[in-house]
Design goal:
- This protein has 12 helices and 12 strands.
- It is of the alpha/beta class.
- Helix 7 links the parallel strand 8 and strand 9.
- Helix 6 packs across helix 7 and helix 10 packs antiparallel against helix 11.
- The longest helix has 18 residues.
- The protein is globular.
- Bound molecules: nicotinamide-adenine-dinucleotide (NAD).
- Nicotinamide-adenine-dinucleotide binds next to helix 4.
Length: 370
Amino acid sequence: MPANKKLLILPGDGIGPEVMAEVRRVVDWFDKRQAIRFDVDEDLVGGCAIDAHGVPLADATMDKAMNADAVLLGAVGGPKWDDLPFENKPERGLLRLRKDMALYANLRPAICFDALVGASSLKPEVVSGLDIMIVRELTGGVYFGTPRGIEDLPNGTRRGVNTQVYTTPEIHRAARVGFELARKRGNKVCSVEKANVMETGVLWRQEVQKLHDAEYADVELSHMYADNCAMQLVRNPKQFDVIVTDNLFGDMLSDEAAMLTGSLGMLPSASLGDADATGRRKALYEPVHGSAPDITGKGVANPLACVLSFAMMLRYSFDLGDDASLIERSVEAILASGKRTADIAVPGEKTISTAEMGQAIVAELEKLAD
Ligand code: NAD
């Protein structure tokens, strides 16, 4: 029997704890089957950590995250903490996790479940069967480059500066994640930048090509300008398998791609860092949605984004692709049977609660695993 996996769960604020309670049912189900055993620790992040410790992420919690095999986060933030200064806001807890764990690759799948084709704003034939993975570089580029700032000019006007900067290793490690993923999927990578107007784009294109030629010649590689990619994502998204792009373009393109599939309540994500000497890769999994204060406490939040984030954890941290698929197939079956939380229901359709959705997943897992 392999050693138990150390899992740190950070439910956070708002609907975070509500959706995480349903993920715990799924974790417990896997634990009971003994296929994979977890040592689960739970702690505070975001507004609840501010209330308890005065900071959005206590040092002791950060230590736990550094020592965990994987971290699963719910959501942070809410109106109660909106007026705090920027450095003390709940979101700083999340940013500290990403920074201290050096999570440089953000994976955002955009999968359109057949039963939810109607929820997309695009035509069914454009999105049906859609399965894209966007890899966004997360720790470099214009969001972090220096010089940056706003300065007063002698003539009384002001000047704002941000700097887009990338180095070869930063580009290679993000692209490597994309190529490795592609090999396990459709074997195609589209690298996206603006090489027509930005030097960092020229470097990005050249370095991705170099890495491809040296180590990933078996993967089909294409290059595309970011503006064209934005257009192609709504014109013909199924042409893509894996998209690899920088921090800024990835921020926008991943939101755009995600919305092709319908609701925020369905979207998982993973953020990966480097592997240590034992092969353990730092990793944080979280739904894309926030703490949804408008529905907090009503028992109506969709837990599927968080459940699917856990599935990503099984696949990318623990190499348990079959178990991840089992969860994904359960979700597909539940949706096909017509079960819907309010966010993915059409007007007039019967809806189920957060807890009922959690129960339905476990029941479906039981059925599929038989
Ligand atoms: P949000 O994602 O919380 O909510 C946007 C809309 O989507 C709301 O109407 C909400 O009810 C709905 N929604 C979101 N998740 C849902 C789910 N699982 N099921 C059903 N409906 C769902 O974004 P927001 O309203 O802009 O932000 C609310 C708070 O969350 C803010 O404090 C913001 O800073 C924070 N936030 C946190 C994260 C994070 O923790 N990663 C991400 C985004 C926003």
